[in-house]
Amino acid sequence: MEREYPEANQFGDLPVYGFYCRHVEGLVLDGIELGYDEKEGRPALFLEDVSNADLRMVLAEPPAGDQPVARFQNVRDCFVQGSRALAGTKTWGAVAGDQTARLHEAGNDFTQATNPFYVNADVPRGAVTTKSRSIP
Question: Can you give the pTM of this predicted structure?
Answer without folding.
Answer: 0.89
